[in-house]
Design a protein that fits this description.
This protein is globular. The longest helix is centred in the middle third of the chain and has 19 residues, at 71-89. The protein has helices at 16-29, 45-58, 71-89, 108-119, 143-152, 160-172; strands spanning 7-12, 35-40, 61-65, 93-97, 123-130, 133-142, 188-191. 35% of the residues are buried. It has 6 helices and 7 strands; from the N terminus they run βαβαβαβαββααβ. A 7-stranded mixed sheet has the order 5-6-4-1-2-3-7, sandwiched between helices. It is of the alpha/beta class.
Length: 193
């Protein structure tokens, strides 16, 4: 599973302390070739500067939104972006972590990829009960399978894949999701470190 690099994305908002700990742990427990992307949902300038510094220190990329999407829409945006980035980079496996989750077990990503392979699934999750609700803390995604699903649609491609992701995530998360036009990768700014 680790014969090729993988992409790990961490969603971020206003918690540079969590991002710093998360990046530090990722660099300890994940292979050096792991590509790490922090997806920030329009944190304040002061928080963003600290997040940017942590990304530089631990060799992570940073993408930010100009306007806050909010918690649940921001999560959907992060899922969409990590899939788009994995496909653009030619990577099969990608992972989306919550900023509040710090996986310390070596091989956690391999375990999720093995679950996907064993079940012939497009995704696998590590969940945890928090504040009376079941939350996906880490989601592994098989980008190739998601791309296969995308190619099955007919008609205009723009927006269809994003709607499919929203429908699937709505089944996983019983919350109202964001408008489809928020899903565009172009709504993010890429920040070089």
């Amino acid at each position: 599973i680790w014969t090729k690099p993988v992409l790990v994305a961490i969603s971020s908002y206003e918690r540079p302390d969590w991002i710093t700990v998360n990046l530090q742990a990722a660099r300890v427990v994940l292979p050096p070739a792991t590509q790490i992307l922090v997806i920030d949902d329009a944190s304040s300038l002061s928080a963003l500067e600290e997040i940017r510094a942590a990304c530089r220190e631990f060799g992570a990329e940073l993408m930010t939104r100009e306007n806050r999407a909010g918690h649940y829409p921001g999560e959907v945006l992060a899922f969409n972006l990590v899939l788009q980035e994995a496909l653009a980079r030619g990577l099969r496996y990608c992972y989306k972590l919550s900023q509040r989750t710090v996986p310390l077990k070596t091989g956690w990503a391999v375990d999720l990829a093995a679950d996907m392979l064993a079940d012939d699934a497009a995704m696998a999750c590590q969940r945890q009960w928090r504040s009376g609700e079941l939350r996906n803390e880490i989601t592994g995604l098989d980008a190739e399978k998601w791309a296969d699903h995308r190619q099955r649609f007919t008609g205009p491609v723009t927006g269809v894949f994003e709607r499919w992701i929203a429908d699937l995530l709505q089944e996983l998360f019983p919350y109202r999701l964001s408008p489809i036009d928020w899903f565009s990768r172009n709504r993010f700014q890429e920040n070089q470190h």
